[in-house]
Each structure stands twice: as structure tokens, then as C-alpha cells.
Amino acid sequence: MEPLAFVEILGRHGDVMARHPVYRWPVRAGRGYDVDIILDDRFVAPRHLQIEPALNGRFRVTDLDSVNGISLVPSARRIGSGEVGPDDIVRLGQTQIRVRAPSYAVRPEVRLRATSMYRRPLSFAIMSAALLGLVVLNAWIAAVQQDERLFMVFPIVAVCIGVGIWISLWSLVSRMVGGRANFAAHGFVACAGLTALALAETLVDYSSFGFHLRWLNYAGTAAAAAIFAYALYRHLRLNSRAPRRRLGIIAAIVSVVAFGVAAGLELAGDSAREGRQVYDPTLKPPAFLWVPGITPEAFLGDGARLKRKVDALARTAP
User: Fold this and answer.
1) 209 in a structural domain
2) What is the pTM of this model?
3) Coil, strand or helix: which one is 34?
4) In DSSP terms, which residues pair with 28 in a beta bridge?
5) Which candidate in 149, 184, 227, 314 could, as Cys together with 121 as Cys, close a disulfide (CB 3.0–4.6 Å)?
6) Where are the alpha helices (DSSP H) in the chain?
7) 203: confidence class by pLDDT, cuts 50, 70, 90
8) Does residue 200 lie within any of the structural domains?
9) How far apart are the C-alpha atoms of 35 and 64, rounded to whole Å?
């Protein structure tokens, strides 16, 4: 006997968890053992919903006087009865269902693709080596004296521990939600994001020093926020089947809030120094200075003129 329809039980992201063939009408769904489709949901009544055919290939769903009722997703408004098509989703309790006829045309098959590069363990190993090399280089440059280079191991260990914890947490969530840890993919995303952040900070530092433009520090904060948002988006994509746009909005909001707080604290610090000399503390080799500066003689001359002015004010003061 050919099925008359299929009732699909959907997961939270719209993926099909189970399909129940229908061989007679009407069909009743609920938590009781005397219905056609048994739902393991404590918010569903023993006899909660009835389904029967309607005109033009549609189906009528009717609430069987349940406490929590039924609604059509995405609306939360309770309805007593209504007609649904093959793409309409009905919520009863915390369960979502969909009814489709055997003649429903499914989408064409998706061509198999090779595993993405960033999901491969080799890509993770290469990116982690690049990040570690960058950390070692920055620590070596920052060490002024030979004795300080003996302590280079501390930032290296700190970065390794921090990145390891970050990757492990994302992998744990991925395992719990999707059944796969995706450790190499999360590791690649984390290492690539940190590498991009470090390179962007280095570029901003040299540009700020070379062109003597202090506002580039704020541009660097915006660039870092964009990099962090994209890395967070990639992590979320590995853990969720939610629409890409929604994940992108979530990542952008988190990044804007985090870096907005950091920028606000920096601006508050600048305001607290109002009236004091403001300068760019970034120091690089003179070869990277691309705009002409003032000569030492001119700098000392300005200082001497300022001293004479202050002395004159002091003499005239009561």
C-alpha cells in the first residue's frame, strides 16, 4: 500500500529528525500510545493534533482541545484549525512538524565536494606553526637585552594555553551540538584569526609611526573588530545550521560590543589626559619614518621659547 502522505518531525534548525508515512485519514498526533504519531514531548497532549487532507494538495490541521495548542511557525499565535502546505511548519508543544505528499518535488542532489582546506589537520598544523613563529618573532623583537630573551618562553606558553583552551571549548560545543568535534577546523580558524590580528596590529603600528598619524590606532581597532567578527562567524558556522545571515549578525554584534567597550575605555583615558601632551608612543627604526620630522635644533628651540614664555608669566604673576 502506497503512503498517502508523510509527516516529518523537524529539529530546531529545520532538519528532518523522522518521517512517518500516512496510510489512512485522519491522522492523530500526540503523546499517548493510542495515536498514529507518538511524540516524546511533555508539552504535547496525549491527543493533541489531527491531520486530514484538504483541497489542492493541502492539509488541514486541527487542535484537539489541547492546553498548549498549535501555531504556524514563525508566528506564535495559537490557532484552532488551519490549512497548511508542504513548506508550512506547525508547532505543537516544543515539537515542529511538516506534512508533505508523496508527489512533493525535492531539490536536486548536491554534488559531493572535497573536504575544505581549513578542515584538514595539515592546514591547522601549518597555520599553528605560522602563529607560533609570529609570536616568537614579536617576543624576540620586544626583548631589549640579551637576558630578557630567556623569558621569551612565557608569552609562547601563554599563547599556546590560551589558544588550546579556546579551540577545545569550541570543539566541545561542536561535539555536543553536531556530534563532531571539528577540532582541526576550529584550530585553523582560531590560529588564522590570531595571525590576522597580529599582522593587522603590526601594520597599523608601522603606518602610525611612518606617517605620524595617531588616528590610525582607531582604524586598527575597527580592523581588529572586523577580523574577530569573521573568525567568530566561522566558529559559529561550524557549530550551527542556522542561516548564515543570522550567524553573521550575531558575530557582528558580539564584536561591536567587545571592541566598542575597549574603544570607549581608550577614549576615556584620552579624555582624562586632557591638557597634557598627546603623542604616539609607537617607536620603530628611523628607516620606517616616511614623513619629515623636525630637527633636534628646532625641537630644542621650541623648548627654549616655551621656557622663556613660562618664565615671563612667572615674573608677572602676583
Assistant:
1) yes
2) 0.60
3) coil
4) 50
5) 184
6) 121-142, 153-178, 183-211, 216-239, 244-272, 296-316
7) confident
8) yes
9) 12
Range of the domain at 200: 117-272
Please tell me whether residues 49 and 185 are part of one structural domain: no
Kindly give the interhelix angle for 121-142 and 153-178, rounded to the nearest 10 degrees. Answer: 150
Whether the Cβ atoms of residue 5 and residue 100 lie closer than 8 Å to each other: yes
Residues 133 and 94 in one domain: no
Same domain, 23 and 91: yes
Same domain, 71 and 147: no
Neighbouring-strand partners of residue 30: 38
Write the burial class of residue 60 (CB in 10 Å: 0-12 exposed, 13-18 middle, 19+ buried): middle
Inter-CA distances, 186 with 55, 125, 181, Å: 49, 12, 9
Q: CB–CB of 48/93 below 8 Å?
A: yes
User: Do residues 52 and 181 share a domain?
Assistant: no
Reported as a single tens digit per residue, the pLDDT across 13-40 is 788 999 999 999 999 999 999 999 999 9
- Can you tell me the distance from the alpha carbon of 196 to that of 190, in angstroms, rounded to the nearest whole number? 10
Query: What's the total number of domains in the chain?
Result: 2
